[in-house]
TrEMBL record:
A single GO cellular-component term on record: membrane
InterPro entries on file: C5a/SBT2-like_Fn3, Peptidase_S8/S53_dom, Peptidase_S8/S53_dom_sf, Peptidase_S8_His-AS, Peptidase_S8_Ser-AS, Peptidase_S8_subtilisin-like, Peptidase_S8_subtilisin-rel
Domain Peptidase S8/S53: residue ranges: 115-526
UniProt xrefs under SUPFAM superfamilies: Subtilisin-like
Active site: 119, 171, 489
Biological classification of the source: Eukaryota, Fungi, Dikarya, Ascomycota, Pezizomycotina
Name of the protein this chain belongs to: Peptidase
Molecular function, one GO term: serine-type endopeptidase activity
Residue ranges occupied by any C5a peptidase/Subtilisin-like protease SBT2-like Fn3-like domain in the UniProt entry: 569-681
Signal peptide boundaries: 1-21
Pfam families: fn3_5, Peptidase_S8
Amino acid sequence: MRFKATLSSVFLFYLLDQVLPNPQLDKSGFAESRPSNAQNVTYIPNTYIVKLEHTPSTKAASLFSQRLGGKVKYHVRKEFNNANFFYGPSLTVTDGTPQKSDLLEINGVKNVWPIGIIDIGVDYLHLSLGGGFGSGYKISFGYDLVGDDHTGTNTPVPDDDPLVTCAVGGHGTHVAGIIGMTDAQNQGFGLVGVAPEATIGMYRVFGCSENSGDDVIMAAMQQAAEDGVDLFTMSLGSLSYWEQASPYVSLAKSIVESGVATITALGNGGDLGPYAVSAPGLAPEVLAHKIISAVHWNIFRFFPFVAEKPLTVFQAGSGLDFPVTELLAGGCDTRVWTAAQKAITDGANTAVLLYLTKSCSLSAYSPELSALNVTTVIYYTDDPDTPVLLPEPDTAGQFTVLFLSYEQSQRIVGDIEHLATGKEYTLLLFNSSTIQDSLNSAGHAIDYFSSISPTVEMTLKPRLSSPGGNILSTYPRSAGGYAVLSGTSMAAPFTVGVYALVKSQRPDLSISEIISLLQSTAVPMKALDMDIISSVTQQGSGLINAYAAVAADSQISPSQLSLLDSPKPAKQTITIKNTSKRLKTYSISHSGALYIRTFNNFTAGSDQAFVKFTDVHEAKYATAKFSKSRLSLQPGKSAKTEVQFTAPDEPQPYSEPIYSGHIKIATDSSSYVVPYLGVPYSRSDTEYIARNTTAWVGNDRPYVGSDSTSPGVVNIGNYSILGSDGSVPEDINVPIVNFIIVQPSNLIRLEIVPVNTTFVPTHYGFDPAVKFDVDLPLREGFLGVPNYGIMAQWGIGRIPPGMSVASLLGWPYPDTVTGFILLYPFLMHENGSGFDLTSGAFRPLLRVLRYGANGTSADDYESWLGPIMNVKTS
């Protein structure tokens, strides 16, 4: 049986990795060292998205101006006036130092978000994408909201033509091709998209600088919904962790509720471990997905992209003052690059052979390679499990990147090692216009880089998985016309095509019913090289199955279960409906999936001590008992079964484990699944502040010391910090408070309190029997604990009354690893104001709000009171 996929319209966006922030000096005067796994959106300075309470017949910008009353000078960037989706302006504040709290205090303002930078565009002149725009073309409608010269921070210059021809439009062109490309006969590679007859709408939100503001993207989302699209896909995202952290969530919810299906990428943050998911994909109503690798590579003869003429091969480290083995051990050793610059005299005819490791990746090598002015770089590996990563084709002025498989690596390195010295050799890279298939050893498995669920609030994401690893599709003509890329960006259009197929065959079904069909008919996938089902956090229901979804003759609800954080979750109810025309009997069973941990080897004495989301997984499962494990239903009838889960025992909750699996429902002709996941303990009842991590850092955390590796002080330490005028004392020795938070918390506070405070903490970082008498001016403090001020504070969402959001440095991550430096003599107060710190003796007080608590009682926090910091200011 053949099915025809049709779409009235598809709305496209694209995703790139987030910008990693460098450790920076905060305005409060304290330098924050973020964890290596931290990612954040880069924010446009002094810009905000403001959500207002809707006032009929009044435009959002006018209402905001009335409410503001001249308190702050600003100009409006975008205006959202459709209250069905989002009501309020985005703006840039032009005077003074803007505070988010200033805007929140305005009557009628419901929420405020800083505007982040994201990216990209599409080349619709590619012949495989129709070669044109407008009526009669494949890409027939849309809008350019920004213009070529938009940087994300300057003023957009919109027009009616969404064309982009610069190479950075690659993601959009690639995504559009997966959905609707059709290669002409004897042209390209004979490729056909998932829905080649689809009419595609293209709303361009990125200029050629690869950046755009959240407000521009939100405006495009709203415009597409207002233009009447049936569904849209957004292969973009901003790392959020928390559902409440992004303005996209409420907008996406409104769009789905209006009847427009929204399919998004979940993100490419798999290396960050669980919870590192992106918005808007984490919105509960949105269909977000994971990536399955393609079974075959598309290659040219020997390399994915090959040089057109012989090149002299230079092996970095060969013939230099130190052996190749040192390069292999040292990874990004700068001495190698210095030697390479001296050795390479003709970069245009030189290929550099480099060893690829996890710690020294393509991004780590890129700056040094650019300085060599070479045209070709060949990466090799000595690890058979190293995935071959195909980069985006290079833009002007960059180099071609070639990857060797493990087998090819062994061959070429072996050949070079046996060459006689003192002679010149050439490596011939044979080009071919004939594309070939090469078996991918990781094919049909979950890609390692795709983001891992759930959200902090325990919403199960992804819902399912689609092909997205090593996908050949169209690319801007300026960059070669075709590319093999990997990412959740590539999986989104596959999911769109299958959704459209189901909708065309089952037009009576609602958005939620189609999503339920796609989930319940998916096929759970095994972990790579293991005879165990991959964690639901990594695949959702499993691999999308177009035929099974269309042919399904049963409906299962709900389509997924979140068991939250409990050793014995609440009883769950599953409803099964027979939509066929005959009697059906259903057998109900349970299948566990891999048990994963966010942290591994986290106790004192371990060789690794602290490893963020390693590849260590366990065959550890929940149990499930059913009220009914067998049901017989007449046509059109439904029945319920209850299931009681019991989580597996977990003695180490600080490792942030997640268990998962599938409820399996089988009939004589088909099978269905309902994925579930949960945390096997109560977050509110466990410890948040990690202790006894000696093996990793050389001393227990939390602690106070002069640097991140020095032994922590027990009762008192002497320090000297910068003066209020920035002067540097000769004996400068700044204190660092080091701590690790191992459970999700939406408020983390690091305060400075009196040496003789009467506050009784959960944990002491000193001997409480040792008494000191110090008397300095105090402030009222927080929850009955007088203090001198706040060193640092991280928060998100609902925070206790009276606490200004201006005092927050940023979001708290579910796994916060922080060393905070007291560098300048300034502290913050609850109201967001700053004040000078005088010389004296203080104690650090760390308080972490327990998950689900409202933060208005001292008992809502786990706390640690540290040793004395005797601080001298110059």
